[in-house]
Design a protein that fits this description.
Blueprint lengths: L10 H13 L23 E5 L2 E4 L4 E4 L14 H11 L10 H13 L5 E5 L2 H16 L3 E5 L6 H4 L10 H4 L2 E3 L5 H10 L4 E6 L11 H11 L3 E6 L11 H5 L5 E4 L10 E5 L1 H4 L15 H16 L2 H22 L6 E4 L4 E6 L1 H4 L2 H14 L2 E2 L3 E3 L6 H23 L20
């Protein structure tokens, strides 16, 4: 079904935004869902409901959704099998005074699927898992420093190494060291400069740039040479590239790995998985909270992974994502914008990358892209995050929309830039890596 192209009203969304301004700092619970990430006055601020590949804002405008709640929705919004499993669990209760059998069942399933998983512990957010893994690595090695690459959540150990470090003590910030992706020499230099001090290396195994040949194995070998643990942050890549995660896709097994987002199709659940000799340290390391074993989300995860095993979900993400990326790049070529833009990344998760003359003002260009996509019924930050519900008809509708979007981008490129085409304040960076 093609996206809605009728004139959009944002009356109710704007009214809710003003109410939120009085009671919600930052207007949203998550920076990436708030005003920094959308073109002001053009984007809706509130979603009413969702189904499959679509969301509806509070004014009734429908959009093909490529944000998917920042990545958790892998089967599609309100997926029937997941909803049924959760409803059945709700009727039996969700928070108990003892552990629930589903915790064991899901742990066994993850140990079956994920190469590094010999034992598992659950959290609610990706930040729970990454921060738990850091604490565990420090306990296992007796070291304090962490080498990191990529985004890893809101906790002090990570966010202190970014521009969003307000409130993080300097002593904590000094313990986190940064290195560039695909920079094996830079990581080696960190180890040499902090000999015997680094507890672990944590990185996303892939985002939009593929690892250089031998890079991930090289990181693993450096870690083991230096007595540090290798932690893969698979909060996004887990289940999207392969049911065993990026570690299965690339054939490199870490010591620990962190999962979340797509594991439960939108229900809050995350996991740390890893070698049993390390994971058993959680018997002493404090990683414990009320909702770690909450039964509704575990039921959602069992249903989600069960569906992914019985249906060609991952295969569809790859095939439909490839068709979308290739079709979008062809439209860029037809619009004369090959020197300005490309869709980069592995097929299940791609991003609009600004090249050459556009790179210096990438936020403004991505803002124009978002603005014009919204007018065509597409909700995006400038990324393609696909679900199983994003089938060939959704891909075709998206490409139809892009045939209206990229000519505007071309006109802006010919006219000196995106500024005079923007109808609201451009997107802003949520943070900068430091």
């Amino acid at each position: 079904m093609p996206p809605s192209k009728t004139p959009r009203s944002l009356e109710h969304s704007n009214a809710l935004r003003e109410r939120a301004r009085r009671v919600v700092p930052g207007l949203a619970q998550t920076f990436s869902k708030g005003p920094l990430s959308f073109v002001g006055g053009v984007a809706p601020s509130f979603v009413s409901h969702a189904s499959g590949a679509h969301v509806w804002d509070v004014d009734g405008n429908r959009y093909i959704d490529y944000i998917l709640g920042l990545g958790p929705v892998i089967l599609g919004h309100a997926h029937e099998a997941v909803n049924q499993a959760v409803a059945a669990q709700l009727a039996r209760g969700t928070a108990f005074s003892l552990s629930h059998p589903g915790e064991v069942q899901l742990s066994e399933l993850l140990c079956e699927l994920i190469p590094c998983a010999e034992m598992v512990r659950f959290g609610k957010n990706g930040s729970d898992a990454t921060s738990g893994a850091i604490r565990l690595a420090r306990a296992c090695t007796g070291r304090d420093k962490v080498a990191r690459c990529g985004y890893h959540g809101w906790q002090d150990w990570y966010i202190g190494s970014t521009s969003r470090h307000k409130g993080v003590p300097e002593a904590v910030r000094a313990l986190t060291l940064s290195f560039p992706y695909n920079g094996l020499d830079a990581l080696d230099a960190l180890f040499r400069a902090h000999r015997g001090e680094i507890a672990c290396v944590i990185l996303e195994p892939v985002t939009f740039d593929e690892p250089a040949a031998g890079y991930l194995a090289g990181v693993r070998d450096l870690c083991h040479r230096e007595g540090a643990l290798l932690v893969f942050d698979e909060v996004i890549t887990g289940f999207r590239l392969h049911l065993g995660g990026a570690q299965s896709y690339f054939g490199v097994t870490p010591d620990l790995a962190c999962f979340g987002k797509a594991m439960a199709n939108g229900f809050p659940l995350s996991a740390i998985a890893g070698r049993a000799d390390y994971m058993r340290q959680f018997e002493e390391v404090f990683f414990s909270f009320t909702f770690g074993g909450e039964a509704a989300s575990i039921a959602a995860a069992l249903a989600t992974i069960g569906t992914m095993r019985s249906e060609p979900v991952v295969e569809a993400l790859w095939s439909n994502g490839a068709a979308l990326r290739e079709g979008a790049n062809a439209i860029i070529e037809e619009s004369g914008l090959r020197e300005h833009f490309t869709w980069a990344g592995l097929a299940p998760w791609t991003t609009l990358r600004c090249l050459g003359p556009a790179a210096a003002r990438s936020l403004e260009w991505r803002s124009l892209f978002q603005q014009e996509c919204l007018e065509q019924g597409i909700l995006t930050h400038g990324n393609h995050m696909l679900s199983f519900a994003h089938g060939p008809e959704i891909v075709a509708a998206t490409l139809d929309a892009y045939r209206a979007v990229f000519p505007v981008m071309a006109e802006a490129a010919a006219g000196g830039g995106p500024e005079r085409f923007l109808r609201g304040a451009p997107m802003q960076a949520v943070m900068r890596q430091s």
